[in-house]
Amino acid sequence: MSLRDNLQTKIYNIAERRNFTPNCTATDYESVAFNKGIPIVIDNGSYQCRVGWANEVSPRLQFDSMVSKYRDRKINQSVLLVGNDIYTDATAKSNAKSAFDGNVVYNFETMEYILDYIFFKLGINTDKVYHPVLVTEPVCNPNHSRRLMSELLFEGYGVPSVCYGIDALFSFHANNLSFEEGGIVVSSGHTTTHVIPVVGRGVLEHTKRISCGGLTSTDYMLKLMQLKYPTFPTKMTINQAQHLVHNFTYVAQDYFKELKEYSNTNTFALNDRIIQFPYVPPANEKTEEELARQEERRQEQARRLKEQAAKLRIQKLKDLENNLEAYVQLKESRSSMKKSEWISRLKENRIDNEADLDEIILKTEKSVQRARNKLLGIDEVEIKEEPTFPLVDTPDEQLNEAEKKEKKKQIAAKSLHETRQRQKEAKELARRQQEEEERAEEQRRINDFEGWLNELKNNYESQLEKVKSLKRKKEQLMDRRSHASQLRMKSIANLASDTPNQKRRRRGQDEDTFGMDDNDWSIYKEISKEEDAWEEEEELSQLRDYEHKLLRYDPAFLPEHTFDAKNSQQNSLVFMLTRGVVPVYDPENFGQMHQLHVNVERIRVPEALFQPSIIGLDQAGVVETIGDIVNRFDYDDQRKMIKSIFVTGGHTQTPGLLPRLETSLRSILPSDAPLGVIHARDPVLDTWRGAALWAKTEDFYKYAVTRQEYQEYGGEYLKEHRFGNVYRI
């Protein structure tokens, strides 16, 4: 018994969205932060925004960076929802918008709604914000975006100072890693993945970006499912695709090796995940009692039809008997009537002569007998009489014109009869020869079973190869551009020509154009279809004969090893990937119609981070990118950086990422390289915590841009610090 037979199916329900926790409005602002100048730390991510006071351990607010503004027709008012609140209403979800283009803020009207929400939820009820603000931003954030953000904070909210820092470097700082000792930060977020070398500071001039992140994986999963199930009865949403990515994907340690494992039917069910979508059972489904009553009505109807058919047979028999009696009386009345009167009676009954009357009586008697036998349930055995041809040997001089015509018919009938007799004799001879061969084969099987079985296996293998060759040839002939198809077309054209087997015509003379028109190819396909079907059926018949013997005498040859089983749609790899192996797919099952099978996509989607070409990106993978960055530094800096390869960001929570990254890096680094791969303690919140740690130091106030400096130098003014977006050329 295979492993797939012992598996118990587990079905996972699709989640429309995550369980969002509402953000409550703070009521302790006066006691906690009022007149204390505590900095506000905003981790402004493109997926989620996290906000809190710098002197606290965790952010107070954590919500999706989405805003929904629409008009509610029920209350006839405009509604504005921010963050997690938009998931409470279907209309709000459909109108949700982000302030980001990729990982850069571009819609500052939406960003203003988010900032209003932040300061309101923090409980700030003063005329303006009296707290310094620290905002995270991506690597190489455009000056234009930063200028508009500074303008919004200074002009709109009156903050005393603003400072910006790279999110990945704050996470590096939160995990107590030293900038002086160096390292490499791999930050994979919602839209992109950045690889930042750290040598005393973030070396932005050697930083690389890969356009692959959590959103890319979600979009790729959605496209794969849509391509895999084009007729799926339910539309999959982006949130549902995200649920599949977050809960069912993992990074393969050896991608191509695991791909091969997914083609193994015995272990496939271990890696297959069945996802059940919600559905409403059809209302017309009948209960067992209704089905039983329906079956009773069907049986009653069948009984009535049988009774009607029996009555019709009895009536038909009576009509035949009456007709037979009338014809017999007409026959007997010949002796008591004049000949002219009797012939007139025949003409009235549409009978030409006495011979036709005798023939009609004979046929009617046979019909009556058949009807009686059928009524009594007696099976008839038809006895065929040997045909006679009395006029064949009679000379034409002795025959009139009608008899000569009859003689020609009898000659043709005799020739056809003799041909059929020869065919019967040939079939009987072939049958006796086949029986003799089977007896000889049976004797050989009894005397030398091993030798006979080996010979049978060899014959089966050669016949199987012949059938496969025919199928390959058939596929080639279906393509008019293939060499085999062109050769066959020329042969058909040559046979159809009035002068076949002509030599090749010289240039300038008339050329054969058969095949240039699509109608010619239609004729060719009809000829090929008939010939190939006959040849393939003959070879398949021989192959099935071998399989029947192997199934009977070879215990190692099982039904699933037969040619038909291997080529069955349900045993194909495509069917297994789409419908699974456990449980057996039932197209009538309404629940199974609303199920997805996530299998090879579990490793294919996260593999895009290592092979971006899978999703159509002409970029290097994360391992090649790290290797290229390391080679840009001298030997001492290289060894410092590879000691601390720091991995952070929400997209790095995919299981198996770190072991795969370490294995792949060891394959491109020297054997004595001191490689160390470190995962952030909390890849999601460490950015905010690192920013909060730095906001409590004197360096924060030193490098923050004050309102006076903003008014003097403009919104693009930025002070250089180790977390900042300043690079040197």
UniProtKB/TrEMBL annotation:
The keyword Mitochondrion does not apply. Keywords: Coiled coil, DNA damage, Nucleus, Transcription, Transcription regulation. GO terms for biological process: DNA damage response. Residues 284-315 form a coiled coil. InterPro entries: Actin (IPR004000), ATPase_NBD (IPR043129). It is found in: Nucleus. The keyword Mitochondrion does not apply. SUPFAM superfamilies: Actin-like ATPase domain (SSF53067). Residues 391-444, 472-516 are annotated as: Disordered. One of its GO terms (cellular component) is nucleus. Residues 415-434 have a biased composition (Basic and acidic residues). Belongs to the actin family. This is Actin-like ATPase domain-containing protein.
